[in-house]
Amino acid sequence: MALKIKNLQDFWCGLLFLALGALAVYMSKDYQMGTALEMGPGYFPTWLGFIMMGFGVVIGGLSFKIEGNGSQGLRWRDWAFRPWLVTTGAIVVYALLMDAEVGFVPSLIALVIGSSLAHKDVHWVETLVLSVCVTAGAVAIFIYGIEMPYRLFWWSE
Amino acid sequence: MGDLIQNLGLGFSVALTLQNLMYCFLGVFLGTLIGVLPGIGSLATMAMLLPLTFILEPVSALIMLAGIYYGSDYGGSTTSILVNLPGEGSSVVTLMDGHPMAKQGRAGPALAIAAMGSFFAGCVGTLLIAVVGPPLANVALAFGSPEYFSLMLMALVCASVVGTGSLLKSLAMVTVGLLIGIVGTDVNSGKMRFTFGIPELSDGVGIAVVAMGVFGLTEIVKNLGDSQMTQTILRGEIKGLMPRWQDLKMSFGSILRGTSIGLAFGPLPGLGGTISSFTSYMVEKKLAKDPSRFGKGAIEGVAGPESANNACSQTTFIPMLTLGIPGSASMALMLAAMTIHGITPGPQVMTGRPDLFWGLIASMWIGNAMLVLLNLPLIGIWVKLLQVPYRLLFPIIITMMGIGIYSLNTTGTDVIMMAFFGFVGYILVKLGCSFPPLILAMVLGPMMEENLRRSLLISEGDLGIFVTRPISAGFIIATVVLLLLFIVPAFRKKRTEVIVD
Fold first, then answer.
1. d(Cα B174, Cα B277) in Å, to the nearest integer?
2. How far is B128 from chain A (nearest CA, A)?
3. What is the pLDDT of residue A86?
């Protein structure tokens, strides 16, 4: 008998939870299990991992039985790749710039411009004006207003 | 009765100081401002503005955060009436009749009725907290670990049952949340768990980090992928705010009924605004002489659910303030804020910090009044805000999230983690999972583990303790009944019917 996946969304979801549960169980094996009477640090996470694996199996298993319209949103063109990757990237860049202490102003300019690129039409002039305005507003509120202790530029102290 | 007046007197003396009035106003204003933005629900708003409250002293911080909470809830309803964009579950109900009203040029009366209903419900809800809070806190003092554990289990199951989407997936998300809650140093053994060798994780994952990732960032990515969202949606102007005499007459009963429904559901942990809004909508439709008007701009369909939702928003504070157990994801954020300020939520807050407890309650009254005063005259500003194109709004929102998260611990690691949760959140959204159960579970996780440990210590390792102690058994039975109710198809069908209609 050939098994056919009737609900792709549930199938992947089940698989994901199964994997996450297995990961939790695997990572908990270094923590002492203890007994029910005296729970070790591994007791709770191990059981949670098993429970999660159980949910994964049931959700995934039902995807072979119950028809769903959940497969549609998963086609290649249904994923918003550009916003997804660009916003994540812009935020990571901002975090790294802040940690490198290049200053509040350049970091924010990078964040505003970077995240603007996530939109499908980029209007460059508008984006630049926006980045300057947002940064100026943020500096006024956070640096001069509530006095957050960040340097403005890499040359300021 | 004398106690009540005395307590409320204390509360108002705290809430009416110039400083706290200002923070209350600021919270309500900022909450509405961000909540109005399309695609940003009250959870994302709270997560985004949470860091602002850290610099305040505890009472002011909680007053401001509560203001943000009901302000953003309110702003969300405004958006769903004006533009056809459901944010969180409870506003879905509002737009079913609110938006048709707006299309007929009656947005003004819809907003005004929503405001009046919410204000009335908010006042009654607040009064209920003041009345039942103290006796309930006394009951809570008698709770032992098994009772707490069972209650939390019930809250998590309730939150999964009433949430959107598949029950199984919501329960699986609960386990994910519990596991995220475990990250960090184990209080009992001092062992680092699930820290992946990252030193910043030894204190655990911050709730604001996760909430902003999955409610803020994921939501933005989802909106950007949705072509409908990327255009400006609102056209036309709002004429005439005042409802007609006939509107008032028709809504009066709906507001009363909606309020009672919200009051009944709110204090039950896990059941949120969505279920009370839906119930109120169903009731109004059943009682109407001509049910076919519903969905085409019936004012009762706005008045009832909005009142129910706001009554519920207020009374969800009850389990959090008296038992220390958050009943919803928003309350989980409130609880996190209390903990950050060094307050252990629970029955002892009322006796140990009466100024805080009663000040907060009194401020809710003031905040609800401010909402009405603020929103009806300022509706023009919110309309203008909704006309700003999304491509300008979302970078501003992301920037605010970036600044807010960085300021938590002055470290980029938190910011990167937020990006990570936003990234993974998008995959989970695509797979049909919802996040409120996860946030709630994340906060309850460490408490559940601790109470499970203590319970099993008392019972010498016997799990039977949860069903042999009467109060705990009551919670367990309620949980099982709820699950059964949900699995029985008839109930399930009814639930979807309301949404489809």
1. 24
2. 37
3. 93
Least Cα separation, residue B86 to chain A (angstroms): 19
CA distance B441 to B171: 10
- Which one-letter amino acid corresponds to residue A50? F
Cβ atoms < 10 Å from Cβ of B103: 13
**Residues 29 to 88 of A: which have CB under 8 A from any B CB?**
31-32, 35-41, 44-45, 48-49, 51-52, 55-56, 58-59, 62, 70, 73-74, 78-80, 82-84, 87-88
Would you say residue A70 has pLDDT above 60? no
Mean pLDDT, residues B20-39 taken together: 86
Tell me the domain boundaries of chain A: 8-76, 81-145
Q: How far is B116 from chain A (nearest CA, A)?
A: 34
Neighbours of B497 (CB within 10 A): 10
pLDDT of residue A94: 94
B77 touches B308 (CB < 8 A): no
Which residues in chain A have Cβ-Cβ distances shorter than 8 Å to B188?
Answer: 39, 41
Contact: B395, A116; criterion CB under 8 Å: yes
Task: Specify the pLDDT at position A18.
Answer: 94
Amino acid present at B488: V
Q: Which amino acid is at B59?
A: V
Checking if the pLDDT of A34 tops 90, the result is no
The band of B284, judged by pLDDT with boundaries at 50, 70 and 90, is confident
Residue A29's alpha-carbon distances to A23, A42, A50, in angstroms, are 10, 7, 12
pLDDT at B291 over 60: yes
- Partners of residue A70 in chain B, C-beta under 8 Å: 432
| Average pLDDT estimate for B352-376 | 86
Q: Give A39's strand partners.
A: A34
Distance of CA B442 to the CA centre of its chain: 15
Q: Residue B184, by phi and psi: left (phi above 0), alpha (psi -120 to 50) or beta?
A: left
Tell me the C-alpha distance between B443 and B476, whole Å: 20
Rounded average pLDDT over B385-414: 86
Percentage of chain B modeled with pLDDT above 70: 91
DSSP state at residue B127: H
Pick from A28, A48, A76, A122 the residue to mutate for testing the B interface (most B CBs within 10 Å): A48
- Segments forming the whole domain that contains residue B58: 2-500
Nearest CA in chain A to B217: A87
pLDDT single digits (tens) A112-148: 999 999 888 888 999 999 999 999 999 998 888 877 8
Candidate from A38, A45, A115 with C-beta closest to B193: A45
Instruction: Compute the C-alpha angle A67/A69/A73, nearest 5°.
Output: 140
Largest CA distance in chain A: 72
- By C-alpha distance, the chain B residue nearest A147 is B55
Q: Each residue of B195-249: pLDDT tens digit?
A: 888 888 888 888 888 888 888 888 888 888 876 654 445 555 666 667 778 777 7
Structure-token match 């790294």, residue found: A96
Average pLDDT over residues B105-129: 87
Look at phi and psi of residue B145 and say left if phi exceeds 0, alpha if psi is from -120 to 50, else beta.
alpha
Euclidean distance between CA atoms B347 and B174, whole angstroms: 26
- What's the average model confidence in pLDDT over B352-362? 87
Picking from B336, B444, B431, B456, the residue whose alpha carbon sits closest to that of residue B62 is B336
Residue B319's alpha-carbon distances to A16, A88, A155, B152, in angstroms, are 34, 36, 51, 11
The pLDDT assigned to B233 comes to 55
Q: Which residues of A touch B226 (CB under 8 A)?
A: 80
Query: What secondary structure does DSSP assign to A22-72, as a single string?
Result: HHHHHHHTTS--B-STTB-TTHHHHHHHHHHHHHHHHHHHHTTTS--STTG
